[in-house]
Structure formats: C-alpha cells, structure tokens
Amino acid sequence: MMVRSFTGLAAAPGLAYGAVVLYHARANRPGTSADPATEQARLIRALAETDATIAAHEAALRAAGQSESAAIFGAHRLLLNDPSLRERATILVTELGRAAADAIIAAAEEQALELERLGDAYLSARAADVRAVALQVWRALTGAVGPGQLLVAPSIVVARDLDPADLAGAPRDLLRGIALAAGGITSHASIIARSLGIPAVVGLGDEILTAAASARAIALDGDHGMVTLDPPADLPARLRPRPRERAVRGATPRGPVITRDGRRIRLLANVASPAEARDACAEGAEGIGLLRTEWLFLDRPDLPDEEEQVALYQAVAAAMPDAPITVRTLDIGGDKRLPALPLPREDNPFLGSRGIRVCLSRPEIFLPQLRALLRARATHDIRLMLPMVTTVAEVRRARSLLDQARNQLVASGRPFSPDIPLGVMIEVPAAALNAAHLAPEAAFFSLGTNDLTQYTLACDRGNHRLADLYQPLDPAVLRLIRMACEVAHQHGRPAGICGELSSDPQATTLLIGLGVDELTCAPAALERVRAAITATDTRAARNLAERALAAEDPQQVRAMLRNTL
Q1: Catalytic residue positions?
Q2: Residues 477/449, Cβ–Cβ less than 8 Å
Q3: Is the distance from CB of 39 to CB of 225 less than 8 angstroms?
Q4: For the segment 411-429, what is each residue's pLDDT rounded down to a tens digit?
C-alpha cells in the first residue's frame, strides 16, 4: 500500500488513527408514487421524526454547555418547521404525485436556490442548512444511513462535507475524526467537531475522496491540518491521547502559565454558558477571556431582561471563583440574527450593522446589558468588552451610555460597582491602524482574529469557496496583530487574542513572538496551548515572528511553524 499525504485546514485539534470510512451523502432520488395519501402520511411521520431527532441533539448540546453548537440545531429546527417548505413538499406529493422522499428534496432545493438568488450573504449561507435538514428527512423516508451507521470499528470518516446531525448522531467511541474535501474552519461541521472533541481536517480538496476509495487506514492531525492514508505501521503508537481520553485523568490545576524563559502568558477560555465555564475551570483556565452573551439572546421570541442577564454573569463567575470574567457585549449582525430583534435587510450584512453599531443604535437593548454587568461587577471580577469597534467615537459613545446606566442604577437604589474595566476588540483593520487613539480609551485590547482575517483579506469566513484565502496566518494579518500589540504595550495595556487562532497550538509560539500577553482558547484546546506556552522560548519566538512577518504568503508561515515544532 502506498502512503499518501494531504494538507488541509486544521479545523478541530487532536490526533487520530482509524479505518477509512468513505461517505457519500445521498444516492439517486426515488421515482414518483402512485399513492399520494400514503406518501403524504409518510412525509408527516418523517418530518415529526426528524424534528424530534434534531431537538434531542440540541438539548444534549445545551446540557453539555455547548451553546454555540446547540444554536445550530435550533436554527435547523426553525428551517424544518418553515410552513413554506412543508407546504411545497405537500403540493408535490398530493397534486403532482411525487414520492415523499423526492418531494422534500425538491422543495428544499427550490427554497435553497431562492435564498441564494437574493444575494444576501446570510441568507445564502442558510441555503446549505435547508438542504441539510431536507437530507435528514430523506433518510428517514428512504432508510438511508448516515456516516455514524457505517462505523463498525474506530474510524475516520472521509466525505465531501458533513451535516451537523452526521456528527452529533455518530457513536463517539467509534468516530475518531473527520477529513472533509470541502469546508472551512468556521463551517458548521468544524464548529460541531470542536465542541464534541472530534479531531477534524477540512478543505482537503476532492482528491482525498478519490484516494480514500482504495485506502484502508488513515491518520489525521487536527493540530496541523495533515491527513495520511495507509500510514506507517508504527504510527498509531506515536499518537497522543485525544482530549476526551485525557478527561478521565482529572482536572488540571489553575495557575500561572510561564514560558521556558519566565514570561507570564495568561491562558483564558472562551465560553457561552456556566457549564462551559466549569469545563474551562477543570481544564486549568485562569479566567474567561470571552463570554459570548449573544447566545442568551438567540433562538427565543423575546429578549432576556436585566435580571436574567445578571443571573447568567453571576453563574459564569461562580463557576470560576476569584477569576476575571470578560464579557463581550451583544454581538449580532452579519451571520447572527435574533428572532426577537429583526434587523433591516442589508446588501452586505458583514459590512453593515454589527456588534457595537447595533448596540449604540438601540440603547433600549444596550442599557439593560450595561446595568446587568455593573450589578454583577459588585460581587465578581467582571470586565466589559466592546465588539466590532472601528472608531474612537464609538468607544466614547459607549462610555456615555455606561455613565447613563450608572445613573439609572443609582436612582433605583440597586447595588452595583461603578468602576468596570472597558476593553475593545480589534476585529477591523481600521481599529488596528488607529490603535494609538483607541488605547487611551481602553483598559485592554482583545484581537478577534476570525473577523480581523476576513476583513483584512476581504473574504467571507463562512464561504467554503474561499477557504483557501481565509488564512489567519497571512502575513498581512500578522502585521496588524504585531501593530496592535506594540501600541497596547506603549500605553501600558495588555493585548490578547480571542479568535480561532488562539486555540491553535501550532501558532502559540508565533503569537507570543508577536507580543501577545493573553490567549483565550476553546476549553478543549487549553491543555495543548498550555504545553505550547511552556515549551516556548521568548527570544526564539520573536525571531520566528520576524521571519513570519517577512513571508510572502501563509503557506510559507505554516511551513516555518512545522519546521520550528
């Protein structure tokens, strides 16, 4: 057997080895039916069965504290229960004599194409979700199996792409990893894989599908984006334990993380719920560097009131006593929509009303959150962080509303802390370029590399066709990180990273060399990033950073990192 290696995008950390399971999502559609009444009854049963399955996945993820992943399934349920989808499928069955399985696929395809024709980035991305939920109904009608049902031994699934349900429904003891021809690191499959601790490499290209058809075994490196078919026989013994296998060994004590030459790097976690905060504490996080508050607002018909928000912040803080909790204020717009707060349709929502722009335009929503943060600050080390900041004027307007929130609390007589550190996220190139003016207004900088990458490189991070261009290690992005860190230090401010890049242990040494003081990671990545920090020498890291900044493309930077490691 010939060893064949492929390089893609590191989507979920971890190393894995297993049998090859090559999965193709759907075979040919069935033909028309001669009995519309029977087919309609089958369609109704399949829709109910699929809805129950999706609801179970959503509930399981919420119970595990995986709010971001649970929200994906919540959105899928809304699409599945869309009356227009169901009515069109019913018409195809009852009036045109189509088989139920054929009808749901055809109805979904019509709806998906309509969404794509609108030219709205958010709605176009939902087209894939419509097709995904229809595929689940199709399976329920035809008896076709998903990838999970094909696993009979520890395996790695190779496919063009996978739907969230493909991962959530697969047996965890047998699914060791996924290798996808398509996809990016922010695709739904990647998000679910990270939340479930499944190593994943995506964006491998269609060549992996052809090669895997004749392969028996596969090794996958989710840290570096490498896949090897029919690897050497001694490779399995050299693979390290996966994160979920490490969990049985007990929690990691929380404490300072120090480089080899004595530099302190704060290791924090990004979470969206108290359960995730408890996981982060067990993994040794020193605090929360990013609490994503929008997940309290999603998938509900009403907005959370002030009391509910106070309860969330206090519960997260209680999960990590005596640790700093940095709360990002409501960050919606772009690809995040609230049923309770419909935003006007925009031709380009990623360049429209997002983050702080929405909050400043809707003080009736922003003020309750600011009051809740000030109240939680009375008993916990709560910090406030503004997303999507572009100008100094935005920070000053936010400060004015913060003063207004203080005055309202004084008038109400409720206890609160008047002093709360206010930081800004550097996610827009203009913010990095204007960092010298933002620093006097901010207590700290937090660089959101996901958005910083897509805005610097002018590529939608959710567009699979641009996965090769969306590269956080592009030298242009690295120069903006270096610039923001240098300015922050000149003003005595700490600078941290809270995007996906901070969870990549291969990038840790480079980020330290660029001047980063804090790394905010997904809880599952904390152990690997901790190990990378303690193995780093600051002087060598700075030398690596200088070489990376001089590179001509991200591929050269990745090669430098592999050679260094």
Answers
A1: 188, 498
A2: yes
A3: no
A4: 999 999 999 999 999 999 9
DSSP state of 251: P
> Within 362-419, where are the H helices?
363-377, 392-412
How far is it, in rounded angstroms, from Cα 130 to Cα 89? 13
Q: What span, in angstroms and rounded, lies between the C-alpha atoms of 3 and 25?
A: 26
Residue 96 neighbours by CB distance under 10 Å:
12
Please choose, from the candidates 234, 167, 129, the residue with its C-alpha nearest in 3D space to the C-alpha of residue 12: 167
Cα separation, 549 vs 541, in Å, equals: 12
Alpha-carbon span 499 to 509, nearest angstrom = 16
**Residue pair 106/137 in contact by the 8 Å Cβ criterion:** no
Bridging pattern class, strands 175-180 and 200-202: parallel
Same domain, 306 and 369: yes
Residue span of the structural domain in which 83 resides: 36-142
pLDDT digits (tens, 9 = 90+) for 514-534: 999 999 998 878 888 999 999
Taking the C-alpha atoms of residue 180 and residue 157, their distance in angstroms, rounded to an integer, is 8
- pTM for the model stands at 0.71
Residues 128 and 159 in one domain: no
DSSP state of 16: E
The pair of structure tokens assigned to 53 is 């399955």
Cα separation of 302 and 389, whole Å? 26
Greatest CA separation for the chain: 76
Give the tokens for residue 565: 């490691």
**What separation, in Å, do the N-terminal and C-terminal C-alpha atoms of the chain show?**
29
Domain boundary among 245, 271, 287: 245
Beta carbons of 47 and 80 less than 8 angstroms apart: yes
**CATH number, domain with residue 124:** 1.10.274.10
